[in-house]
């Protein structure tokens, strides 16, 4: 997507204009700008009663994500898709916790994104009690659950997954968007595994378009970079810090920093109290140590060469980023492909699905006028 240097499978350094080609690259950039600038009214032709709600996929602070089957065959809204992951957000909670702007921004970001490793947005709608985002249903579960089941990943698998997160961050940063919410062991899960074994990043509630620095305190405690903890202005550096924490946790089975409470955890982070396990290769240890540094001006990914310093690091020598982007990697190199399941199979449910109860009165109508 963005001009890059990529190391091929034979440790060969070669240059390419984009992960597609120059014309497609220009078109995708133009499409992003057009989609980003559009005003997004909600879809008044869609309502909750047009869906069969099957089961809850995950829960968050402001609602839940529900697997839903679209009942009607007379719509072109789904581009052939029948199943959706619908993010159901309670208006009252969004107002109470001052999350309206984040919700509007999440919809805007999702609409603008066009990347193979980000979840696809279809449409949004609202009713008296809730606002809804209809997203691509990813049936393979989440990366965190797979990691906990495995314990830890070998470094070949770490590279495969980390390369995809790198491509997402490279894409977002090209358009000056911070993700700010990479995490494991937290709900809702935001790194999903598709049927083909590749990743899909979701949950863009904390994503933000920036021009310079921002100061918002957000993120998951284990993954917070020191500049956020110290209430300093920050930019793209925060995403690369979380990238290194993710690489560490995938390879070690636990994050690098710990503490009996948040205060001790934050002290551990700002004082860089961590040790790379002896099982780490010298390349992985070097990558982690060059990113997890306090001074952002010397942090890998934040210097003159930007993200290319990460992409061209020896840890990724065996990775062909073009193949990863096009999801054309040798199938034998894909660590895990989820078992295909019937979305309508309810045998794993331990209890009846909780209904979505809608008020007779239009709650917070004015606050959500722009949704």
From TrEMBL:
GO molecular function terms attached to this record: ATP binding; cAMP-dependent protein kinase activity
Protein name as it appears in the record: cAMP-dependent protein kinase
Annotated positions binding ATP: 87
Top-level taxon in the UniProt lineage: Eukaryota
Protein kinase domain span: 51-316
Keywords from the UniProt entry: ATP-binding, Kinase, Nucleotide-binding, Serine/threonine-protein kinase, Transferase
Keyword Cytoplasm in annotation: no
InterPro entries per record: Kinase-like_dom_sf (IPR011009), Prot_kinase_dom (IPR000719), Protein_kinase_ATP_BS (IPR017441)
EC number(s) stated in the UniProt entry for this protein: 2.7.11.11
SUPFAM superfamilies reported in the protein's UniProt record: Protein kinase-like (PK-like)
Catalyzed reactions per annotation: L-seryl-[protein] + ATP = O-phospho-L-seryl-[protein] + ADP + H(+); L-threonyl-[protein] + ATP = O-phospho-L-threonyl-[protein] + ADP + H(+)
GO CC field: cAMP-dependent protein kinase complex; cytosol; nucleus
Main EC class the enzyme belongs to: transferase
């Amino acid at each position: 997507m963005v001009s890059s240097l990529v190391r091929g499978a034979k440790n060969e350094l070669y240059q390419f204009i984009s992960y597609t080609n120059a014309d497609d690259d220009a078109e995708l950039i133009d499409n992003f700008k057009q989609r980003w600038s559009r005003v997004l009214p909600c879809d008044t032709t869609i309502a909750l009663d047009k869906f069969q709600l099957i089961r809850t996929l995950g829960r968050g602070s402001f609602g839940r994500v529900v697997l839903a089957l679209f009942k009607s065959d007379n719509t072109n809204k789904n581009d052939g898709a029948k199943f959706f992951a619908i993010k159901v957000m309670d208006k009252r909670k969004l107002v109470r916790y001052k999350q309206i702007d984040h919700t509007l921004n999440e919809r805007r970001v999702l609409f603008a994104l066009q990347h193979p490793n980000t979840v696809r947005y279809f449409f949004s709608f609202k009713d008296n009690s809730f606002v809804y985002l209809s997203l691509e249903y990813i049936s393979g579960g989440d990366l965190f659950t797979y990691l906990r089941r495995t314990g830890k990943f070998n470094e070949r698998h770490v590279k495969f997954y980390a390369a995809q997160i790198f491509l997402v961050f490279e894409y977002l940063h090209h358009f000056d968007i911070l993700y700010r919410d990479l995490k494991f062991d937290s709900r809702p899960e935001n790194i999903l595994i598709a049927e083909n074994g590749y990743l899909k990043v979701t949950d863009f509630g904390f994503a933000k378009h920036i021009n310079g620095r921002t100061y918002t305190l957000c993120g998951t405690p284990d993954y917070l970079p020191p500049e956020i903890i110290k209430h300093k202005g920050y930019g793209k550096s925060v995403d690369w810090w979380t990238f290194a924490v993710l690489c560490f946790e995938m390879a070690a089975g636990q994050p690098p920093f710990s503490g009996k409470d948040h205060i001790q955890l934050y002290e551990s982070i700002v004082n860089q109290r961590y040790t790379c396990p002896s099982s780490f290769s010298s390349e992985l240890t070097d990558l982690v140590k060059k990113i997890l540094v306090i001074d952002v001006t010397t942090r890998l990914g934040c210097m003159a060469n930007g993200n290319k310093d990460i992409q061209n690091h020896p840890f990724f020598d065996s990775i062909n980023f073009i193949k990863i982007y096009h999801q054309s990697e040798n199938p034998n190199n894909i660590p895990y492909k989820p078992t295909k399941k019937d979305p309508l199979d309810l045998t794993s449910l331990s209890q009846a699905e909780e209904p979505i109860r809608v008020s007779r009165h239009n709650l917070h109508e004015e606050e959500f006028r722009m949704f």
